[in-house]
Structure formats: structure tokens, C-alpha cells
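Sequence, please.
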């Protein structure tokens, strides 16, 4: 188990590094407007993952881990795949409606729908559930690495690349390659087809209720992380979108690392007893906070150099960009202090409390951004509203965990 987690962390780390490399290649070699448009696609599809997943990454993985018989596995996969199809239909509707509010509406909608169709049959959740999470991580690493290499060669040769071509090369093609390889690996392992399952007309109500809990919570979590940038995408111009996207990329670098650890540790959490998992979560939170303090000291002394890692060196750092970078640092610190708290809640408290916290976060972010837009400060509120939401969620999550622990101690 420990070796599998270690391999997964390494492979996922390299995958996130390649994803970051694509973003940096675009930010440093194309216009601010193109970069903003590219970042907008990444941001929206991050929400699309939750919609199409429809609980499969949480409920599906958690339930598959318990099963050994291939017949039971196939039954569960068919049920969860039906839920994913429902999520895909919702995604198509959202893609069409949202694209009407931005430039290049038709091509953007087509790209979103094509991406969603590929992701519908992306079987990483099945591989994780049958204990092959490191295999999926290796596949992702290879396909994303090849994607970076192709994009770098094209840029090096000064090839003319449109925004649609960048999105296709940077996001859609690696996902398609990874999906195809994952399907072949899974079929080789199980000797049966687990991916292309027919849609069920009926399903266990208990399963649907639990997947809805996880989906609602995960959707709200992704939404409140992204809604500020999405609002900027159709309420302002592309240049402003690009300036704010620089700071979002900075925060997303940290989010990638967080995602690596959470993805790798979540199956392990599910196998631990509650008190051991809580103890592990608190130690990891403490370690993450200590790492942030070290980073904060470095940032306070070399902020311009750090900002110019993402912003091209020939560009002057605007007031908007600097403000959002500084808020992003505060946001990282807030998240570090509760790094694995939400993960613990997902594993041991079900979806209800997770949903409640993320809904609070989404409401806060939407309200603050709309108020800021009304007063002309939307460019400053996109990340600041996220900081407020994360701070509240951190406090509430700790309160819930230790309140319940105190009640359990009294009852004993």
C-alpha cells in the first residue's frame, strides 16, 4: 500500500507538472487574451469533471474497493456509469448555454462537448477502485508528458496555433490518449468490458442519493473555486481575464499539489479507522502549514521574481495582478491549515456535511463577486472572495470534527 501511494504521488506529481508546463508555455508565448481564453477552458472543464463524474470518484471508488467478485463489480460500474451519463447530458446543456455569453461561442461549445464526451468514458475511477491507482497515474504522466513535448516542438518551430488548436493539443488530445490506454489496460486486467455499459432505466435509490450528495458537494467545491474567473470570463474583456488568470494559475499550482496528495491518500483514508485517519489528517495539516510558513518567507523577499515565473518578464506587473497574487498567497495559507480536513469528512462523514460547507462557500463567492461587479471591483474580488469562503469552510470543518469527537468521548 505504501509503495503504491509513493508511486502514485510521483506519477501524479509529474502529471501536474506537465499540466503546469502547458499553462506556462501558453502564458509566455501567446497574448494575454489567448492565455485568458485557454485558462477559462481549463477552469470550466474542472467543474465539468465533477458534473460528469457524478459521484464516481468518491462513491464509486469507495464501493469498488469493497468488491472482489467481477459480477458485483460489473453491476456497480453499470449503475455508476448511468449516473455519469446523466452528468454528461447536464454538461452538454451547460456548455451550450454558457458559450452563448462569450466570444467564439460555437467553437468553444464544440470543444467543451467533445471534451465531455471523452471524459464520459474516462475510466480512471474504475482503475482506482480495483486497486490500480498507480497504473492510472502512470498513464496520465506519459500522455500529458507527450502533450507538452508536442506543444513545445510546435512553439519552438514558431508554428501558428489558434486558441482552439492550443486547447485541443493542451487538454483534449492528452485526455483522449489517456482514456484509450486506460480502457485497454482495464480490459486486459479484468478480461471483460467495464467501460461501455448500457444505460440503466432504474437503479438503487440509496446509491443515487449518496452519489447526489457527493456530486453536489464536489460541484460546489469546484464551482466556488472557479466561479470568480468564470464570471470575469463573460462580464469583462479578454485582457482583464488574462491578467486575473495569471494569479489563478499561481494558486492552481498549489492546488495541483494538493490534488496529488488527496487523490493518492483518499483510498488509504477509507481503509483506516476513524481515530487513526483523524490523527493522520491533523499531522498532514500541521506539516502543510509549516511548509507554507517557509514559502511565505521566500515570497515576501522575492515576490517579483516569483510572479515573473508565470507573467512574461517583459510585461509590467499590473496592480490587478499583484493584488491577486498577494491574496493568492493568503489563500494558500488558509487552505494549508485545513489541508486534509475535508478529505477526512468525505471518507467518514458521508456527503451531507461536505455538501453543506461547499454550498456555504459557493454562496459566499457568488454574492461577493456580484456585489463587486455592481461596484466596479470584480477584477479584485475573484480570488479575495475565494479566500473568505475557504476561511469559513476551514473553521466550520474543524468545528464539526472536534464537536463530534467531544460528543463521542462523553458518550463513552
Amino acid at each position: 500500500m505504501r509503495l503504491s501511494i509513493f508511486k502514485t504521488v510521483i506519477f501524479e506529481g509529474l502529471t501536474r507538472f506537465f499540466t503546469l508546463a502547458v499553462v506556462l508555455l501558453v502564458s509566455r508565448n501567446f497574448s494575454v487574451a489567448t492565455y485568458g481564453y485557454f485558462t477559462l477552458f481549463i477552469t470550466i472543464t474542472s467543474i465539468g469533471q465533477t458534473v460528469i463524474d457524478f459521484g464516481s470518484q468518491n462513491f464509486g471508488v469507495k464501493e469498488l474497493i469493497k468488491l472482489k467478485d467481477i459480477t458485483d463489480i460489473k453491476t456497480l460500474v453499470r449503475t455508476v456509469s448511468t449516473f455519469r451519463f446523466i452528468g454528461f447530458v447536464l454538461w452538454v446543456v451547460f456548455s451550450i448555454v454558457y458559450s452563448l455569453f462569450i466570444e467564439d461561442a460555437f467553437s468553444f461549445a464544440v470543444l467543451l462537448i467533445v471534451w465531455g464526451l471523452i471524459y464520459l468514458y474516462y475510466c480512471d475511477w474504475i482503475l482506482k477502485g480495483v486497486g490500480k491507482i498507480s497504473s492510472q497515474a502512470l498513464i496520465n504522466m506519459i500522455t500529458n508528458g507527450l502533450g507538452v513535448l508536442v506543444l513545445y516542438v510546435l512553439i519552438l518551430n514558431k508554428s501558428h496555433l489558434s486558441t482552439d488548436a492550443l486547447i485541443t493539443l493542451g487538454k483534449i488530445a492528452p485526455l483522449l490518449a489517456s482514456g484509450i490506454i486506460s480502457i485497454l489496460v482495464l480490459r486486459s486486467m479484468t478480461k471483460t468490458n467495464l467501460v461501455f455499459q448500457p444505460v440503466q432505466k432504474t437503479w438503487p435509490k440509496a446509491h443515487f442519493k449518496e452519489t447526489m450528495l457527493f456530486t453536489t458537494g464536489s460541484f460546489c467545491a469546484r464551482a466556488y473555486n472557479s466561479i470568480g474567473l468564470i464570471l470575469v470570463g463573460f462580464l469583462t474583456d479578454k485582457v482583464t481575464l488574462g491578467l486575473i488568470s495569471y494569479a489563478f494559475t499561481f494558486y492552481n499550482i498549489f492546488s495541483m499539489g494538493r490534488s496529488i496528495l488527496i487523490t493518492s491518500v483518499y483510498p488509504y483514508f477509507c481503509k483506516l479507522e476513524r481515530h487513526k485517519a483523524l490523527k493522520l489528517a491533523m499531522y498532514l495539516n500541521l506539516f502543510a502549514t509549516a511548509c507554507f510558513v517557509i514559502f511565505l518567507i521566500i515570497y515576501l523577499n522575492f515576490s517579483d521574481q516569483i510572479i515573473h515565473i508565470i507573467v512574461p518578464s517583459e510585461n509590467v506587473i499590473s496592480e490587478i495582478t499583484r493584488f491577486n497574487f498577494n491574496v493568492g498567497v493568503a489563500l494558500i495559507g488558509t487552505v494549508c491549515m485545513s489541508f486534509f480536513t475535508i478529505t477526512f469528512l468525505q471518507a467518514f462523514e458521508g456527503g451531507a456535511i461536505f455538501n453543506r460547507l461547499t454550498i456555504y462557500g459557493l454562496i459566499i463567492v457568488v454574492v461577493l463577486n456580484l456585489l463587486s461587479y455592481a461596484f466596479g471591483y470584480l477584477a479584485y474580488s475573484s480570488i479575495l472572495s475565494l479566500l473568505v469562503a475557504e476561511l469559513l469552510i476551514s473553521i466550520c470543518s474543524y468545528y464539526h470534527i472536534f464537536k463530534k469527537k467531544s460528543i463521542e468521548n462523553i458518550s463513552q
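The chain has a mean pLDDT of 80.
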